[in-house]
Amino acid sequence: MEISTTPSTTTVDDARLAEILENPGFGNHFTDHMLTIEWTPDAGWHGGRIEPYGPLSLDPATAVLHYAQETFEGMKAYRHEDGSIWSFRPEENAARMVRSSHRLALPVLPVDDFVQAVDALVAVDQRWVPDAAGEKSLYLRPFMFASEAFLGVRPAQHVTFMVIASPAGAYFKGGVKPVSLWLTEEYTRAGRGGMGAAKTGGNYASSLVAQQEASLHGCDQVVFLDGQEGKYVEELGGMNMYFVHADGHIVTPETGTILEGITRASIIELAGKMGHQVEERKFSIDEWREGVASGEITEIFACGTAAVITPVGELKWDGGSVPTPDGGGDLWRRIRQQLVDVQFGRAEDTFGWMHRIV
């Protein structure tokens, strides 16, 4: 794909950039440029361009504003000690966007074009990739939306794909600590035949009221159960879950109505290499309660692109709670360290996960 570049004439100066990269936070600052590619039925994907980062001009009738036809991805670029820049399994993010696009009736951006587009923006804005100290990285947000100005209810005939980037610090300031969870018994995230497995903004919008409920009860995250029977654990508002048992095997909720996380899949492979059998199956809330009470479940952890892996602490609901498992396991920590070491180039990439950009 041809991608033109129009350099920004108002780039952030080196001194200010150094200040930003010292303490970037998450999603607070954005790089000097953005990438855009457009699609129409006649021309296909075309108009690939990198240009100065700035606001979009949208018609009030732009379809995405009314019918939420949109998908996105979340991934990172990592600077290794030798100064090279790498991404982690970008083809898997591209493949997931293909699946999300099918579900949202959006055109499919080929995997190779997705990877090329992300690489192109990172190459132009490579000075924004922080060094590895404190697990800092450049967070990448590819997204696609219905950009046609039309109020009819049908798939859009004009679609825009974009990539923006934002430097990110460690998800947990002061080190990783267990997250407390609230079990919502009123809200569900997805149902059979729904959009649960697609990475689309509507899934996150539907989780926000339950997240508010969790916050009101002093919890960090919300746990969703299945929408059909209301008894099987699905995922958190934005993270996949794992339950470690006394014999070392791990259970993680099966996919279909949950997001197939890239970190999730990587942990399954890593755990298997470390000798831990991983089951992907239905896992009930009763099994969680009883497993912790009996000591059968020795640790619980969750994962996502931003946090990587975090241990899970107390689970609360209206009228009860399950304490943090007291098995004293640190499997989550060992898996996390191996994964992060591969991402930042401190360990051999035996899986072939890393993709060099610069």
From TrEMBL:
Q: Which Gene3D superfamilies match?
A: 3.30.470.10, D-amino Acid Aminotransferase, subunit A, domain 2
**Pfam families linked to this entry:** Aminotran_4
> In its keyword annotation, does this UniProt entry include Cytoplasm?
no
**Which SUPFAM superfamilies does the record associate with it?**
D-aminoacid aminotransferase-like PLP-dependent enzymes
Reaction it catalyzes: L-leucine + 2-oxoglutarate = 4-methyl-2-oxopentanoate + L-glutamate; L-isoleucine + 2-oxoglutarate = (S)-3-methyl-2-oxopentanoate + L-glutamate; L-valine + 2-oxoglutarate = 3-methyl-2-oxobutanoate + L-glutamate
Q: Which domain of life is it from?
A: Bacteria
Q: Which cofactor does it need?
A: pyridoxal 5'-phosphate
Q: In which pathway does it act?
A: Amino-acid biosynthesis; L-valine biosynthesis; L-valine from pyruvate: step 4/4; Amino-acid biosynthesis; L-isoleucine biosynthesis; L-isoleucine from 2-oxobutanoate: step 4/4; Amino-acid biosynthesis; L-leucine biosynthesis; L-leucine from 3-methyl-2-oxobutanoate: step 4/4
Which InterPro entries does this chain map to?
Aminotrans_IV (IPR001544), Aminotrans_IV_CS (IPR018300), Aminotransferase-like (IPR036038), B_amino_transII (IPR005786), BCAT-like_C (IPR043132), BCAT-like_N (IPR043131), BCAT_family (IPR033939)
Q: Report whether Transferase shows up as a keyword of the record.
A: yes
Transmembrane regions: none
GO MF entries:
branched-chain-amino-acid transaminase activity
Protein keywords: Amino-acid biosynthesis, Aminotransferase, Branched-chain amino acid biosynthesis, Pyridoxal phosphate, Transferase
Q: Which EC number applies?
A: 2.6.1.42
What family classification does the UniProt entry report for this protein?
Belongs to the class-IV pyridoxal-phosphate-dependent aminotransferase family.
What is the name listed in the Swiss-Prot or TrEMBL entry for this protein?
Answer: Branched-chain-amino-acid aminotransferase
